[in-house]
Structures are given as C-alpha cells and as structure tokens.
Amino acid sequence: MLPARRTARAIAPRSSARFSKAPVVTVTARATPGWGIRSLSDNGTIHATVAFAKGDGPVTLHGYSPTPVSVTASGGSVGQVGYDSGSHLFSVSISPGRGSTVPVTLTRR
C-alpha cells in the first residue's frame, strides 16, 4: 500500500501581503519523512528549496499566480508547467537530482 498523500503549504512573506503580485505555492508529495519546503523567500521571484527523502520520487508544486509562471530547478528536473488562465492555478512536477534538496525558482511571465 502506498503512503497517504500529504500537502504542505508555503507562502512567501511578501506574497501574503501582496497576494495578487506573486505566485502562491503549495506542495503535494508522498508522506515520507524528510520531504518538504526547507526554505522560501520572495523578492518578486519565489525561491524555494524542496527537500526529498531518500528514494523519493517527484513532488508537485501547485499554486496561484495572476499570470503564467516559469520554473527552474538546480540539481533536479522540472516537468511541464500547467497553467489554467481561468482559475490562475498552476502545477509543476519537480524531481530530485543526486542530492537531497533542489533549489527551485518561480517567476511570473
């Protein structure tokens, strides 16, 4: 039986004050110890560090942004970014690389 899915919500400090100005991100992953958002900052671009437990597969970042977002990852890989222009919701899969953490950058286009 697979572990239950668990969601962590991470909102950058500036994002909560200016909700319509920056993306808001949530993360969905298997409930394994050691995963989650290790750091999060917002200077107009969201910078997050996603932690993976040993043997973890990809996690999916979900969020809100008034415009589509571009996503990059260092030391991991990024799947295709999905964006719904009606709801302004996006989702993207982040896969781990060789290390246990992947720095991710989300930028509004």
Describe this structure in words.
With 109 residues, the chain is mostly beta strands. It has a single domain, classed as Polysaccharide lyase family 8-like, C-terminal (Chondroitinase Ac, Chain A, domain 3). Helices cover 5% and strands 52% of the residues. The chain has one helix at residues 13-17, and strands at 5-10, 24-30, 36-42, 46-51, 59-64, 69-73, 77-78, 82-84, 89-95, 101-108. Strands 1, 2, 5, 7, 8 and 9 form a 6-stranded antiparallel beta sheet that branches. The protein has a 4-stranded antiparallel beta sheet with strand order 3-4-10-6. Strand 3 and strand 4 form a beta hairpin. The longest helix is centred in the first third of the chain and has 5 residues, at 13-17. The termini are far apart. Residues 1-20 have low confidence and may be disordered.
Fraction of helical residues:
under 10%
Specify the CATH class.
Mainly Beta
Q: What is the CATH homologous superfamily assignment?
A: Polysaccharide lyase family 8-like, C-terminal
Question: What is the H/E order?
Answer: EHEEEEEEEEE
- Contiguous uncertain segments of 5+ residues: 1-20
What is the β-strand count?
10
Q: Can you give the mean pLDDT?
A: 76
Beta strand %: over 45%
The CATH architecture would be Sandwich
Could you tell me the CATH topology label: Chondroitinase Ac, Chain A, domain 3
Gyration radius (Cα, Å) is 13 Å
Structural class comes to: mainly beta
> Tell me about the biggest sheet?
6 strands, antiparallel
The global form is globular
The total of helices stands at: 1
How many separate structural domains? 1
Instruction: Compute the separation of the termini in Å.
Output: 40 Å
